[in-house]
Structure prediction request, 457 residues.
Amino acid sequence: MESKDIEYENIKAMILDILLENTSSSAVNLWFGDIKLILIDDNEAVFVTPTDLKKKIISQRFTEKLKGALGQIIGFEPIITIISSENGEGEITKKADDDVEEGLKKPKIVSTVAGYRPEYTFENFVVGSSNNYAAAFAKQVANKNYNGAFLSKDDNPFFIYGPSGVGKSHLLYAISNQIIENYPNVKIKYITGEEFNNQILDAINSKITPSFREKYRNVDVLLIDDIHFIAGKTTVQEEFFNTFNALYNSGKQIILTSDRPPNEMKQLEERLQGRFMGGLITDIQLPDFDLRCAIINQKASQNGLFISHEVSRFLAENVKSSIRQLEGVVKKLGAIQLLEGGDITLDRVKNSIKEFIHVQESDTKRMDSIIIAVSKKYGVTRDDILSDKRNAEIMLPRHICVYLARTCTNLSQAQIGKAINRERTTIISSENKVKRMIEESHDFALEINELIRQIKN
Prediction:
């Protein structure tokens, strides 16, 4: 795939993210999931759909939304042209930029088949202290023996939880891709919690629940993203409970993600909580600074974009909301470079991605919350943490305060040092010490992640 094709794919992904802000995911997936952006110039953007029906619907109902979304990304609203590849209309050949004005060529179209997002693999999942256990457990589940009955149910169901945009879906796709590679004949079903809910309700209303049950109970691996969506929906939970039992008792693998652990889903039936808690549970938290840097560099490399060390550090320091936002930043920078050319300088970045850089006004207040939370957790006082005491009972909570501040705030090392009366070199040492402890102890990692969740909430 050429660099321009990659950038077009990135721009399309950004468009879908914007459309999802005011359009249901079902509608976006239905009408835009397989649309392709094939041309942008200073006047027009051309999209190709696989069928005449989709061309008609998008042209009549979604053109303005497409124009507005694209305008947010590239800074102006071009004319939107929708074409269909059903009868060969949308095929274009590779040609030099100076040939674009000659129009679209029309050789035979080559169709594509929707799959399990093969671009998401374990190889391109960047691992750090916030997700290393989740990645390791996911590989363990992906590489099980899927020929015949499973030898163990210790990791069934496999449950991953964490905030939005930290890579849970990436791991689901990576698992399914790995299983498909190892066992091509294994039947895999991936679906979101929202889609599962809608399909159940449609099946009930259409009186076709037997066919629905057959579809979901006749698989070897069931992956459901955002299972928390079914909480509070009695009929859906009843149907899922029966599906879960049928698969589990048949030795089939169940893999789920959620934004919170099962015991915190207040409207989830107790029997389902028990089923979820009976498997292998792991969490993913927001990436720390080092992991954010690694993710930015990887995404830039994948998109053929050169980002200097200075720009990478600036982005990692200022974009902390999610991995998805980091990807969005890199995609936007790629789109800007595609349209305007030139180097990605720090000044250019600051002027181009202001919507991604959210400096929290409450960082100082959050620092106080961190000290209070750590004091309560470890039975020390605020004065102890701010004091010169160097006994282990005080130093560990102090180290943890530093790590949490680096993870949960935009404060610099110098600002954190000022808040707890420490030099910058001491702050660096404290942060590194906690990172090592997280890597060495799963229990300690869970302890820290629970503190992060408390502070974030």
